[in-house]
Each structure stands twice: as C-alpha cells, then as structure tokens.
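Table S2 (continued). Query chain:
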Amino acid sequence: MKPVSPVPNLVFQSVLVRLIGVLAELPLRVDIVTWGLTQPAQGSLAILPFVGPVMESTVQRANDEYSGFLKFSLTYVVEPRLKDCLQVADNIEPLMSKWYYNSSQAADVSVFIGSGCTDRFSMNIMAMNWNILMITCAAGVPSSDHKDLTPTWVTSSPYSEGSFIYLIIQTLLKHGWVTPYVLLDQDANVLYSAVGRAFAPIAGRAGIRPVRGILTTSFKDSSSFQSILKDFQGVSRAMLFLGHAEPFRKMLIEAAHRNMTNGDFVYIAMEAFQHKSFGNFTWNYNDSDDLVARSAFCSAFLIGMKQNLDQEMRMPDEDRLAAKWREDAQTKYNMSYTEDYRPLAYQYGTFLAVSATAKVMPGVC
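Corresponding output:
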C-alpha cells in the first residue's frame, strides 16, 4: 500500500484565504495546534510522547529556516484526565471550542495537525466553519469521502483506518465473501476499534453485510474460541478478525482441531505494521503448537502494509532526528524507546505534516 499523498495544492486554498486578509507585520505568526493523549492507552502509538518530540523539533527547525519571516508556535490542546482515544473523541468538541474562543486570536494563522487518536466527524465540521487547514498524521477520518464536508482536511499518514477498510472491502468483494463473520478484539490496539466502528456502514454501501454485525469480545479466556468457531461454522465461510496477533493464532489452532482449516473457511486478519503493539502475525512462536499453527496459517489471509515500506520511508538526516526524538521522549515525557528504535509510521506522518506546512507558508503569504 502506497503512502497517501499528503498535501494537494488545492487544500491550502483554505490557508490562502485567511492569509490574504492578514496585515500583521512580519514575522507572520503561525500556530500549529494539536490534540490527543498524554499517556499510553490500549496500545496506542499515536500519543504525544511519541509525536510530541517530532513536532517540537520540526517546529524549531522551521523557525530557524524562516527566521524573521515566519514565527511558528506549537499549542497542545489536551486534557490529562482523558485516558483513551474514545474519551478524547467524546470530548473533542468542548476541547477545541475552548481553544478557539479563548486562544485562537493569538496567532495570525492556525493549522490543526492531529497527533493521532480518533476524532469525531465534528472535528472536520469545526475546521471547515473556522476555515482552518487540518492535517491528520495517523488516524484518518472514516467519513472523509464527503469532500463537501471536509474541504480543509488532508492526511499525511502512510495509512489510516480508512485505508485498511478500503483494502478489506476490496478483498471481500473480490472473493465474494459478502457476509463475513466479523470479530473485534476489545483488548487490542485502539486502531482495531476504530476500524471496527467504521467498517459496517462503509461496507454496507459496498454490498457487504456482516452476518452477526460487529461482535466485540475479549479473548483472555481461551474457551471463547470454541463457542465462536461453532457459531461461525454455521453462518459464514469468511471470518474477519480485528485484533492482536496472539489470539488470532490461538483461533487458528483451535480451528485446526475442529477440522476448520481444510479449505472450507478463511480467516482474515489486519496487520497495521510490524510492532509489538499489534503482535507477531506468524505461526512460528517456538512453542509446542508451531506444527499445528503452521498448517492452520494456510487458511489465513493477512492484510497490511507493504512489508518494506518502513525502509522506503526515509527522512533527511533520519539517524540524527531519531536520536533527538529518543532523547526528548525520555527527558520531556518520561518514555523510553527501545535500542533498535526507528521512527514509526505515525512519527513519519507527523514530521511530513509539520514540514509541509512550513514549506508551503512562504509561498502563499
């Protein structure tokens, strides 16, 4: 899957309209406004401890490059009491409205750059009504196909839940699996919840009807696999599993014991990208179930990013930047990166969004 093109020129007409009326003396004040979580939650990687260091260093670089002409600032609109992405989504309207009516006039131009997490469609409506460019760096907006309601929105994410939903739908249609059995792992990374929440209405427009709706369950109890497979066997041939790799493997192993990996059934899983937050989607766990799992995985269908996309996404001076982000994450956010750390796709999208904003501003003001 190729990265989404981040900055169509037409999108910046929103910024241009605002800049035409700006008569402030140089430097022009540009405030980058972001929202999101301040702490890890449900495996989410789109949080400020990951993307904050990227934003801060990229803003500083933009200020150095355009000193005297543009002055960039960074504003975090956050509420520490919000513990997960769903709580952020439920509170996004009052959070952003408070910023807009109390602080937005501090800058000549404001740009929304989302740190990740999920947001309500009303975030787009607010950006449209306030005539503010909005760039999302991780989560995409499921209803973004309504271009008339999202005229100021664009994404710099190499992927989003919308991209995965599109791939899943195309896969199901290609093989004629139009009544899939859809399972959502409630304990998995929040990206799966975002996909699960948006999947049914979008798939419905394509003629796909999940036979049991979206079944949300916890797989901490292994006995649940037996009842799920028994139900699945009677109503569908294709299972869409939205969740962590470990319960997916256990599901396949149990299916093999029930003679349900003989070619009559298919088990579809979504691998966002290779990271421990999503698990390891392979049969090989070096345990006593490897032989059964290896055979069972012949019935698995994995949907995910092109495996070498990480190697294709290289930034200028990446090693130095990665070292800086690792250091800032530790000192400013008390988060430690692993020794083999390389910038994540979320961080790449954030770097691209801020860099593109800085690069475009001199050309339109």
